[in-house]
Amino acid sequence: MSQIKELTRAEEQLMQILWQLNKGYVKDVIDELPEPKPAYNTVSTIIRILETKGFIDHKAYGKSHEYYPIISKEQYQNFATEKLLNGYFDNSVQHMFSYFVKKEKIDLKEADEILKLIEKLKNK
Model's pTM, two decimal places? Predict the structure, then answer.
């Protein structure tokens, strides 16, 4: 796999749709976007950028192109998480976890689930 590149907000929005659909034409992607829908040419351009960045590929059927992801959502999640962890939390999961706790982004039930997961990993 080549080096994963960061996505813009618009590119990520379209990738989320393609990951959900598994494959689709530009029209299918537009159908999944919220109102007001962007112009066909706008979506088509962003999809071609995603292809250039190596996130998607296509099958041609005459003049129509069916697009599909070649980088999985999990692969991009790993990339984005590593970038967040390295860029903002000195590569420390503890710093990141404490940040979310302080910002009240994690409630007690979620924290308890995380602790159970840690215990399960420790007992392997």
Answer: 0.79
Burial class (CB in 10 A: 0-12, 13-18, 19+), 63: exposed
pLDDT for the residue numbered 36: 94
49-77 pLDDT, tens digit each: 999 999 999 999 999 999 999 999 999 99
Q: DSSP readout, 51-69?
A: HHTTSEEEEEETTEEEEEE
Single-letter code of the amino acid located at 47: I
Cβ contacts of 15 within 8 Å, gap of 6 or more: 7, 50, 55, 56, 69, 73, 76
Report how far apart the first and last C-alpha atoms of the chain are (Å, whole number): 30
Tokens for 13?
Answer: 């929005």
Show Cβ contacts of residue 26 under 8 Å, excluding neighbours closer than 6 positions: 40, 43, 44, 47, 65, 67
Class of residue 71 by CB neighbours under 10 A (exposed 0-12, middle 13-18, buried 19+): buried
